[in-house]
Design a protein that fits this description.
two-stranded antiparallel sheet; globular; EC 3.1.3.48; Ptyr_pPase; Ptyr_pPase_sf; protein tyrosine phosphatase activity; LMW_PTPase
Amino acid sequence: MPPPRSPRFRAGRSRPSTATGGDGPPARCPATVPRAEPRILMPGGKLTDPFRILFVSTANVCRSPVAELVCRQLLRTALGASVARFGLSSAGTHAAPGVPMDGRAVRLLVSRGLGTEARAFGATQLTAHRLRAADLVLTAGWRHRSAVLALEPAARDRSFCLLELIRLLSRIDAPGLPRDPLARARVAVESGRQLRDEIGHQPRHADEVPDPAALSDYGYAVSVSLVESAVHRFVRFLQPVTCSPEVPA
């Protein structure tokens, strides 16, 4: 199969050159062991690994699990059985393994039809092993990305703040993208890296999802909404334009 075409970038920007939650305080719980994603049987009988996306926040009880569960729900709707081509997980930089999701996050996810998944969720601690296994790492903010790079410096080119990646991908012209969702995911990583190297970092506050731990219920909902909106846009990027999911205003 020929490699996917490189996407075109919006007018006014030169194409980049190739360059190298309620996340509150955790409690102590037993450690968990990372689960290996099963390999995928592709057409022609070829086995391949899924594209692994890792979401990262502080305690892994609000922002990152919301991103994981909502992303999985949207991909399942968009891709059907092909959702198995993506392996989704989340972890916290200061997580207590096994701690359940924050109650306010659970209530918000219940209203999205994700109550069963939210109630069954248990926090996971971020490790270098998990980072090495991930094809794309999406963090709630810059502090989390710094923690990612401290654990695994080699993850630099495939780690982004969630809002940062969405901002960068908005500069890519959809007609230049391949139709295959897995190929589009790889384009997201490579093009995001190229664009970041070209235009540099923006003010850090622009790419932060606020920690909802100490916020009012309204502020908490706003923080979760930021995560959901970004994930919607990311899933839309992974789909051909003709069958993109509707993104809430």
